Amino acid sequence: MLVGSDDFDIRVFKGDQIIGETSETDAVTCIAPLHESIFAYALANGTIGVYDKLDRLWRIKSKNVAVSICAFDFDGDGIPELVTAWSNGKLDIRNIRNGEVVYKDNFKFPLAGLCTADVNQDGRLHLICCDVEGERK
C-alpha cells in the first residue's frame, strides 16, 4: 500500500510494516498508480511528479495547485499518461517517463476532478474532466 501524508512523506507499506519511504517538500495531496511500479503524486505547493518505486523520475512545480491526478492511456500505446487537473482550469497530460506535455486544454473555471469511465459502453475508457461550475469535457 502506498500512503502520502501531511508530514511530507510517501510511505510504502506491506501489511503493517513500512518497507520504504521518501520525503517531499510539502503535504502530499494526491497519489495515483500509473503503470506497474510507477506512481504519481501531487503536493499542496503545486508540485507534481512521478516515481518508479522510490526513485524519482521527474517533478515540476506550478504556481497553481493540482486538484486531481489520474492515469489515462491518451495515445493508445498501452502505457498510461499522467493527467493533471489544475486549480486555474488547466488540464495537462504528460508522459510518465519524462514529464513531457503531450496534450493540454483549458476550462473557463477551476477544475474540480478527473475520472475515467466507459461512458458510451464501447469497451474503452474515456477521460472525464469536470470544472467547479459543472462543465465537463
Which terms would index this structure?
mainly beta, 4-stranded antiparallel beta sheet, 0% helix, globular
Q: Residue ranges: pLDDT <50 for 5 or more in a row?
A: none
The total of beta strands comes to 13
Sheet of most strands: 4 strands, antiparallel
Q: Which value, in Å, is the CA radius of gyration?
A: 15 Å
Structural class category: mainly beta
- Overall geometric form: globular
The portion of residues forming beta strands comes to over 45%
SSE succession? EEEEEEEEEEEEE
Order of strands, main sheet, comes to: 4-5-6-7
Tally the helices: what do you get?
0
Rounded to the nearest angstrom, the distance between the terminal CA atoms is 32 Å
Share of helix, binned: under 10%
Averaged pLDDT: 95
Characterise the protein shown here:
- With 137 residues, the protein is an all-beta fold.
- The protein is built from no helices and 13 strands.
- It has strands spanning 2-4, 9-14, 17-23, 28-35, 38-43, 47-52, 55-61, 66-72, 81-86, 90-94, 101-106, 111-117, 126-131.
- The strands form four sheets. A four-stranded antiparallel sheet has the order 4-5-6-7, with no helix packed on it. The chain has a four-stranded antiparallel sheet with strand order 8-9-10-11, with no helix packed on it.
- The chain is globular.
- The model has no long low-confidence stretch (mean pLDDT 95).
